[in-house]
Records
---
Amino acid sequence: MKLDVSQASQPKALADKKEVVLKALETLVVKTGAGNDFLGWVDWPEQYDKNEYARIKDAAKRIREEVEALVVIGIGGSYLGARAVIEALSPSYDRKGPEILFAGNHLSAQEMAELLAYLRGKRFAINVISKSGTTTEPAIAFRHCKALLEETVGKEKAKSLIFATTDRARGALKTLADSEGYETFVVPDDIGGRFTVLTAVGLLPIACAGIDTDALFEGARRMRSIALQSDFEKNPALQYAASRLAQMDAGKSIEILVCYEPKMHYMQEWWKQLAGESEGKDGKGLFPASVGNTTDLHSLGQWIQEGPRIHFETVLWFDEAANDVKIPGDAENLDGLNYLAGKTMHYVNEQAMLATKKAHVDGGVPNHLLRFERLDAEQIGELLYFFEVVIGVSGYAAGVNPFNQPGVEYYKKNMFHLLGKPGFETLA
């Protein structure tokens, strides 16, 4: 991975933030800051549970051999990481193995009805992901899908097709899984939801999709050796964190993550949760937005180019296309495209990226450029760990606890009250 901040922050602005991000990194590494009981992800690429990892691989092999679809039930960090990696690294139109379906991330009756209708008559398995087992959205989805599975294959067979990823020792889902005999995997106590993509939370669905999880870990380990070093000039995570802080000091309130690969849509969604839930508290934090170019150049491009100067961009680019295609010539040339004949689409896409970046910079929009070699599992492992470190460092540097989410509890309490959940009859 290569980072270019030259069109975002001046050297002096970076130098001014050097000491604060170095101190924040130290706080992260030695685990002395707020939320330090949720820093298990920092060492996870090296210290993950090898025995459980082997069980995950075995379960994924069985699932891939036995069913047509896997229903992954979870919300927030319980599904975004897995979906991001699967969408980024799977073929768009001709996927092998079971179809990976996601449920429990909304309360739409229409969506649930359509899912159940689609599953009826299919051989499917369930991976329900919840630390507590009582979060409303996944709990409702699990009730529906579990009932359909038991109706389809019988209660005994269903037990072998339900996999629970939950707390190690307690909670409603753990109790149910132990009682019913579901195979269980662990949500680590010291890793919060939005940082769990390389734990069982993300790995079981990812492995079921046929993605090389070993390569994901290899990429994360490689980035860990880079992102945790205290040499500012050699650490792109520190430089990027410093530049983000400099942008905030300059009055920017929105960061737009830009990607030119449609496969990266859910990776952008994962990043939005990671950044927004980690930094958005105590009246602080950048608003994390995203665009998928060149598509969104024809919708939001105008606002980015000439709207209020309250934002900056971070562009993700992959230097190589795994499958590139050449633009054909046409004798009649009615569309006027023969000037591109023989050139590859990836080349044209890159020129669009460079042209857009220049236009936005000229228009007063600071730009970071993150370049990866190619869109593969190792590079995605690098990307995941890179962003996790950046957000941890910039959160600490900004003076917030990046590892809690107190605001999430407010709407939950209100919803429980309105729904009449016992114990929530009155609001505090």
---
Amino acid sequence: MHDIRFIREHPDHFDAAMKRRNIDVSASSILEMDAARRAVQSELQEMQSRRNIVSKEIGKLKANGGNADALIAEVNDIKTTMPDLENRDADLAQQLESVLMEIPNILDASVPDGMDESDNELVRTHGDIPSFSFTPVDHVALGEGLGQMDFALGAKLAGARFVVLQGQLARLERALAALMLDTHTSEFGYVETVPPSLVNSQTMTGTGQLPKFAEDLYKTDDKWLIPTAEVPLTNIVAGEILSPEKLPMRMTAYTNCFRSEAGSAGRDTRGMIRQHQFSKVEMVSISHPDDSANELERMTGCAEAILQKLELPYRVLKLCSGDTGFSAEQTYDLEVWLPGQDEGRGMYREISSCSNCGPFQARRMKARFRDKDTGETQFLHTLNGSGLAIGRTMIAVLENGQQEDGTVRLPTALHGYMGTDRLVKKSV
């Protein structure tokens, strides 16, 4: 959420920032609402001050035997009027907050301008794109050929965009999660955490999923299914005032994630690329403002380390202004090479996003730290990143490791977790 004081002091900067986002909102419209509320607050303060002054005068008059009826009537009038003004103040505050809650974060100056993913900036590539003596197939053909990936059964049990994994592929899901968690905890110092998969509305609001993206979420009677572990992990510090010595806080979690994909109708309907339920290992960092830029680079490197261990070719992109998410001020996307996509011609597909949200989420959550020099509180910076999405990582392992006979060669890092160096067709 945005600081109204910043908009008051820097309206032109705010307007320019929203223009970069292609968002039709202006500082002037927000400041009109702010001015209306401040006028009501000023009137309330004047009434409170007058009430206090008159109350003292009443006391003096009564002590001296004077007639205080007129002053008592004035106080009663004030008491009658104030509740209406207080309700008006509360209504205006709610209206202003509702508007601010739906406005995306201000982008970092380093973010390139652009309309969509075609304008993202290539930062680096890693690894060699594999060559095959045959036309590679996609993960669906591979998984079904192995007899261990069943979309028809997923549809029978739950509907479209669900899958049932069995045998070696079920173990591969578990192995990938274990490799990622072991790496992030033992090598990079993230604290493994098991958060709830159901959270309340306040928690969803804290990280920016609500109110704007409600249609993309699944809801029970009074709880929301998490779209990513970012939501509960980041909200661990909601309402807290941390000491700077606790920073950075680094947490990782392996969870199921749930998304309605309302905004992606017709996209990636084949296979496991985009499902309603998927699993992911998430990284979250709670950082001092001075350190968050470096923390983003570090987090991105942690995600890259997993891809390198799995011997997967990938590239890193800095997202442009039109493709950066709602809560982020800067994002790196990692895209892995999938040789079976596009009928065997292959393409890069997103497998991780690492974002610095600055104080945007912290302000919504009221998450702060106390400056050791001044004793004053400041908003924390929050960061999140996929480390990695399990389903898409499985796709990459299958498609890059496929052999002409339908088996799949596994990267060395998985041999110990899998108890084998390759995937083979399920025996009947």
